[in-house]
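#structure-requests
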Amino acid sequence: MRDVVNWRIATLLVLVSWVRGGVVGAAVAPKGIDQLREADLIVVGVIDQVVVESERSRIERGFGNYDWGIYLTLNVKTVEKGEFSQPQIEARCFRVKSRRSATEYLSVFGHDPIPGVGTRVRVYLSRSGTNWNVVLPNGITPHDADTNETVWPDGSLGQAGELAGLSGLMYTYLLPLELWGLVFFVFLPVAFCVFRVVRYWRCRQGSDKEESESLG
């Protein structure tokens, strides 16, 4: 029985470590300048508005996966690639809000950086029907960035104030689905075994005590 308990505890610890490692290690490397320039549309403009909405994830589409949809309205100053004739454009970014399982964290966390209102930026966009999405993960850069070093996120653009209070990197159902399975198939059986062992030893000690008292 002890071997079974130890094996189940070890399995639980390994899975917990894997779950934590998956959440920490799922970030996507920033794109270089040549990769960013493959975008459908490249504009330089000033961020006029930032709107945040909770919505179903468009990356991990299973029920129970949610993202923060972050919609930037830009006043367009220059169109450097593609065709766009309007004075403003709305571009969608996102950050992960919650996932239902650890494996579904092994994709992308969202965009970085996402600057605030009034920031002049160059934005690399991909078309999705009639909508525009910022290229993942670093499709927003300083307006004059034109090398790999300057397009990689370094904190210089700051972060929109609207993002400061957003929760993220959580599990929708408190624990990942993988751990809920272990709760029922590992933790509860282990707890039951421990309970039985403790009860057995208490009964054994009580019997030994009564026997010694009767002999005395």
